[in-house]
Amino acid sequence: MRVLVAPDKFKGSLTAAEVASAVAAGLADVHPALAVTTLPVADGGEGTVDAAVAAGFRRVRVPARGPTGAPVTASYAVLGDTAVVELAEASGLHRLPGAPEPLTATSAGTGDVIAAAVRAGCRRIVLGVGGSACTDGGAGMLAALGARLLDDDGRDLPSGGAALSRLASLDLTNLSRVDIELASDVDHPLHEAASVYGPQKGASPEDVGILAAALRHWASIAGPEFASRPGAGAAGGVGFAAMAVLGARMRPGIELLLDLLGFDAALTGASLVVTGEGSLDGQTLAGKAPAGVARAAAARGVPCVAVSGRCSLSPAELAGAGISAAYALTDLEPDPARCMAEAAPLLRRLAHRVAAGYFSLSR
């Protein structure tokens, strides 16, 4: 009998690969003969490149600009002519060197990484758009790919979302054309990019108003018919720029990543799937990785259980998501700080309970 362990990261504690390793070790402690396959997953946010590398892609490190324009080293993953680019690698909140800069933060670094992958011969770009620090409508990304955003005097606009209010024209003459698939669990239109996500990136109420007006103006020039599309507001409007200007296609992040990582093949012969993430909560039900894994397992008639740092979902909610049972670190250790600090050994112990439940499910 075989178990497929396919978790997302425990944010702030463990990568998805570390979660999978701890669960596999705990299962082996109880049933050494149990065949366990690990497949770390992601939904397009932080950890997407790591998941691709764990699935056999090669990591490539390249120079890029961070959200403030400061130089950083970012990674993408490549297999054949497909590159997996994670926006958070260059343009994520964790790349901010100090306080947030909501009005001037840029997505240029994401464009730098895409451009590097294209120069290396990649023809297909899978772009995960979670965890951004910017609300620039994707303008920085486009500029890094060769577009010019000009003011009334024909000068290039400075970086950031606020500057878009001064946009007079968009010159796409030298824009690199690239085949992009967007991996995102965000379905907000562009006009909600500032109001819904701006405060998470340090925007004050006044900043939100400035950014919202600037994004409306940006959309009126770059492609007003795309502004209301679901996902246009992803990553501060990167979704909009990718769809309106680059012709990108958007798919739910976890669905796209499961296809890319070979989940269906890994599932063959499994009698149980173990998935998970740091917190099983309402966001999980809105399309996060564990719900996507459970849905894919259910389509093949394979039961799925989940591990997490904490779980606030009811048994009915879990069942509705296709998760037969949930096991949380807080079941073992009530102190959240210790759960974070000792996540790996606690998760290994938690997997002992999963192993016991596995045989009850398979009877």
UniProtKB/TrEMBL annotation:
Top-level lineage group: Bacteria
One Pfam family recorded for the sequence: Gly_kinase
Keyword hit for Repeat: no
Key words of the record: Kinase, Transferase
One of the GO BP terms on file: organic acid phosphorylation
InterPro entries found in the cross-reference section: Glyc_kinase_flavodox-like_fold (IPR018193), Glycerate_kinase (IPR004381), Glycerate_kinase_RE-like (IPR018197), Glycerate_kinase_sf (IPR036129)
GO molecular function, one term: glycerate kinase activity
The family this protein is said to belong to: Belongs to the glycerate kinase type-1 family.
Name of the protein in its database record: Glycerate kinase
